[in-house]
Queue: 2 jobs
Job 1
Amino acid sequence: EKPDIETLRQQLTTGKTQQQYSAIAQLGQAGDSGLACLMDYWREQPQITPSPLLGKIHQALYAAQTPATENFLRNYLPSGLVPLKSDCQVDYQPLAQHLIAQEFLEGDRLSLQKLCEAAGEAAQNRKWLYFSEVDKIPVTDFHTVNTLWLTYSEGKFGYSVQRDLWLAQGKDFSKLWDKIGWRKENNWTRYPNEFIWDLSAPKGHLPLSNQLRGVRTFEAILRHPAWTS
Ligand code: UYC
């Protein structure tokens, strides 16, 4: 039996975080009255700043594709929820689009591509990041990419999430691989089919960093000043 809209509204306004996410998902599937409830909740916010909760509502309204939600998104989110700041003229709009649409595989590929762009011409042409180029990526740009991942993943994905897990494992990469599902029983997870491209993945599973050329690039990402400033 489905809970009614009023119950879900209550759950959204007073529930714990996981219950709020669940209420948003159900309201998004509950037709026009459920969507209206999500749009009311949005309008009642004293201020709009990027958060996984508002990101989840943004995704639900985006997925609904009704005239009312499309109109709402045009009026209230003409330039999205996350400010797409860059200190090196990188356009993060296509990345934002994929993550809003919950297209995590495409978003993942684009994240690596955008980091290469931000790191300069050599990385952009090579199409992968050399470890010594990571510190060329501005703090602002790392913040933008990371905030996009956090906002559109219930706070589950992002470099800062991977960093917290890495610190919690005493900076032991071997333990981290198992924790974030990049290795299982001593076997590397194979790209792309063995990775999990939705929110059923373990915390910190995305975005990926190819380890083919060693751990140094990923380590440089986790040690970037972005996560301590
Ligand atoms: N791949 O195995 N990876 C690729 C991962 C490794 C390999 C891309 C992650 C191990 C090859 C991404 C893991 C390994 C290619 C990732 C992983 C390996 C490739 C696309 C778990 C062999 C094809 C972006 C640690 C033992 C290269 C990119 C090509 C691609 C990510 C092999 C995002 C997290 C050590 C052969 N792997 N990668 O950078 O040219 O190419 O198509 O990490």
Note: Residues 104-119 form the longest helix (16 residues).
Job 2
Amino acid sequence: SSATHRPDVLVIGGGIGGLSAALALTRKGLRVRLYEKAAEFGEVGAGLQIAPNCTRILDDYGLLRETVALGVLPEHMVMKDAVDAEELTRLNLKDLQRRYGFPYMVIHRSDLLGIFLRACERAGVELVTDAHCVSYGNTPGGARVTFAGGRTDEAETVIAADGLHSVARTLLVHDEPVNSAYVAYRGAVPFDQVRTNDVHEKDVVVYIGPRCHFVQYPLRGGRMFNQVAVFESPKALAGEEHWGTPDELDRAFDGMCPQIRKGLPLMWRDRWWRMFDRDPIMNWVSGRIALLGDAAHPPLQYMAQGAVMAIEDGWVLAEHVGAQQARRSGQSSGVDWDKALGAYEAVRPEHCRRVVLAARAWGELWHLEGLKRLQRNTLLRSRDTYDYSFTDWVYGPTALTPDQEPELYPTIPLDSVND
Ligand code: FAD
């Protein structure tokens, strides 16, 4: 049906960022065609944390009920020391939900991707797979993409949601992903396999330790259990090419508490994720080509905001498109794209810059060792667990304009533990 019309917008990349942006723009009455390079839409079969600043948007899209039905609403987020398993601090997620109006949830990645995919299909997004975009360029009236094999397509605007190794990003900056030398192992297993491992059935638990951390939470109504093991790779530090290998996994958690050591054999050992982010950039728009999601701001995952930021990007963009929309006439969508993209670029880069840098700082704080670790633990144990000054700037409503963005956020006084 929509194939008879020229699309108004092309979205490149069918991850959580691209699919959610395509949905958001379609809800504003635009014709959207999305291209994904893989043969099928898919995500890793592991877990994803989605904070209130994301569930608020899912609710706006009418998708929160389905998300809650497929996911888990944990009761607490508990931070423990990885060496002695002592509790350091926690967030009461029921109280957090009262504060922000929307829940903190965990969900299987492929379930969330499926929710967006089905919503895109219902909304009439044109979904094209097996389409590897190799270049982007502006045209007099819009932007054009070229695919491997030579096929091209064009529209008024192109949204590049093509992930960490974004091709579109090279239009704006010639940077490289920054190697953190940390690697993540994942594993999601039936809950029965961890029943005797002293796990929290209803919480998100993060064990923080010397150059490592370990995350656990339930998935799919508690029938599954998700674990993430993250550590610094000595081989990466030594400059070796094959780093983050399973022998390093076991060694990294030597001497950690039994709760972690019991979990390690359940990690998938045939795949691991080397952790890169990029330095923040403040310019995401080149003519009618705009970056979104990891293409614009890939973080280290310690704030659990990477996918959430991508979803926020699409929501903010669509709100500004809606605000800059005149009546459709002929082939033209009626959107003032320069204004809409300008408004998007005026607010999102600063927020995402803060998250990317805060995630790096979190990593430093989590991975301290020796005396600094003990000092950190003292600080964390003494914090008021109902103090939300650390989460308001992230979990509060997504800002549409710079003046809605909280000005400053507090930082843990790292200086006192860093010298
Ligand atoms: P991607 O998911 O990378 O999607 C990009 C898509 O574009 C892919 O489908 C790809 O195939 C396609 N593509 C790429 N290039 C092209 C091309 N040239 N042509 C056509 N298609 C192309 N985030 C959270 O919010 N909460 C969490 O709890 C969380 N935990 C994490 C844990 C780990 C261990 C890791 C590694 C990350 C975590 N994240 C988390 C981050 C989150 O996974 C990412 O930020 C998010 O998935 C980015 O989505 P995206 O759509 O922007 O990019």
Note: The pocket of flavin-adenine dinucleotide is lined by residues 12-18, 35-38, 48-49, 131-133, 161-164, 167, 184, 228, 273, 293-294, 301, 304-308, 310 (CB under 6 Å).
